[in-house]
Amino acid sequence: MSTAMEALATTAESISIETVPPAQPTPHYDFQRPPHLVYTADEFSSSKDASCYLKGCKWAPDGSCLLTNSADSVLRLFDAPDFSTGLPPSPLPWKSALRVKEVDLVYDYCWYSKMSSSDPATACFVTTSKTAPVHLWDAFLGTHRASYIAKDNSDSVVAANSVAVNPEGTMIYAGYSNTVRIFDIAYPGEECAMVDVSKKEGRQGGIISSMAFDVSGTDMVAFGSYSRSISLCSCDGDLISTLETTHSNGITQLHFSPDGRRLYSAARMDQRILCWDLRTRKVLRDFRRESGTNQRLYFDVDPLERWLCSGTRNGKLSVWPLKEREMAKENSAPSFEFDVHSDMVNGVSFHLQWSLLASASGQRHVPSPFVAESTVSENILKLWYVG
């Protein structure tokens, strides 16, 4: 680790560290039976901000904790429960261990790709919010480590719409209008490399709304934009290919398969999750979910790429098997559906080592004179055992 990064990192001496066991089991997800609810966190509903609602959840790369985003601009960190004595017979309360307040509405957030709770220097995450630079936060203390700043022609700070950290953990990629900026994580400030993705350069154009890295070693990154386009580029920003997407609206999420052969994409107000064969650059299959909302509905693929799981606007969890024979089917309806929330399921996240699935619910409810005040609204994080 460079001297500059060490200066940003929190030292281990002042922290009580709960490390993840060195030997991790392989997750075995089984959706043949309903998921078993083991923990719930309802502190979002009790927030002083009446408009607070969850906006997704993401497990840390080492599985030690879970990070959530919510409309009150607070990032909450939940430690992974200890199941050494077995699963609880009934759901237990789950309380956040850390809260980080951003200055404004959080557009995007992600874990540092090399995060390990056994090494405090790597225990951090990245956020971008409406009126602020990209921020790097300490995941133990909740303190601000560094800022990565983009400015416009009038020298005003411009907020990134999406963020991602490369697999090597050396660079932060930030998506703006017609531009991707690449910051060296060891050197905070304004210095960065700029990748022009505007249409005048034969690229996709628009606001870069989502990004994903291929972790199989191909040196490839995918950029999705609100102009409905997806481009595949080298990590230096050189264009490899543009996917001719049929998404009806802006791209909200991208996800590479572990072997780098497929790319999954989703868009707002679009019922489909598309699976792309990156060898042919064609859609291999589309998966239909109950969507129809401008709010981002996250999906996830389990670490062994056996299952695709997505939230829906009607409180259900939709699940599809990803075996080769299943991928060849024309029927794109979910193979399994479970009632897991009483409001929109906006976030799902598979644990990388254990058979645990986190789900988040909530959405913005606009008061209406035609709807009674007793309209159901649920802003809850749940943890399920699926095995």
Outline the fold blueprint.
Blueprint: H1 3-8, E1 36-41, E2 54-59, E3 65-70, E4 74-79, E5 92-93, E6 98-101, E7 106-111, E8 124-129, E9 134-138, E10 144-148, E11 162-165, E12 171-176, E13 179-184, E14 193-196, E15 208-213, E16 220-225, E17 230-234, E18 239-243, E19 251-256, E20 262-267, E21 272-277, E22 282-288, E23 299-301, E24 307-311, E25 316-321, H2 324-327, E26 336-339, E27 345-350, E28 356-361, E29 381-385
Parallel strand pairs: 1-5
Antiparallel strand pairs: 1-29, 2-3, 3-4, 4-6, 7-8, 8-9, 9-10, 11-12, 12-13, 13-14, 15-16, 16-17, 17-18, 19-20, 20-21, 21-22, 23-24, 24-25, 25-26, 27-28, 28-29
Q: What descriptive keywords fit this protein?
A:
387 residues, mainly beta, Methylamine Dehydrogenase, Chain H, five-stranded mixed β-sheet, four-stranded antiparallel β-sheet, 40% strand, globular
Q: How would you summarize this macromolecular structure in one to three sentences?
A:
Keywords: WD repeat. With 387 residues, the protein is mainly beta.
Folded structure, characterized:
With 387 residues, this protein is mostly beta strands. The protein has a domain at 25-102 and 204-385: YVTN repeat-like/Quinoprotein amine dehydrogenase (Methylamine Dehydrogenase, Chain H). The protein contains two helices and 29 strands. The chain has helices at residues 3-8, 324-327, and strands spanning 36-41, 54-59, 65-70, 74-79, 92-93, 98-101, 106-111, 124-129, 134-138, 144-148, 162-165, 171-176, 179-184, 193-196, 208-213, 220-225, 230-234, 239-243, 251-256, 262-267, 272-277, 282-288, 299-301, 307-311, 316-321, 336-339, 345-350, 356-361, 381-385. The strands form seven sheets. A five-stranded mixed β-sheet has the order 5-1-29-28-27, with no helix packed on it. It has a four-stranded antiparallel β-sheet with strand order 2-3-4-6, with no helix packed on it. The protein has a four-stranded antiparallel β-sheet with strand order 7-8-9-10, with no helix packed on it. A hairpin with a 5-residue loop joins strand 9 and strand 10 (144-148). The chain starts with a helix and ends with a strand. Mean pLDDT is 88; it is low at 10-23.
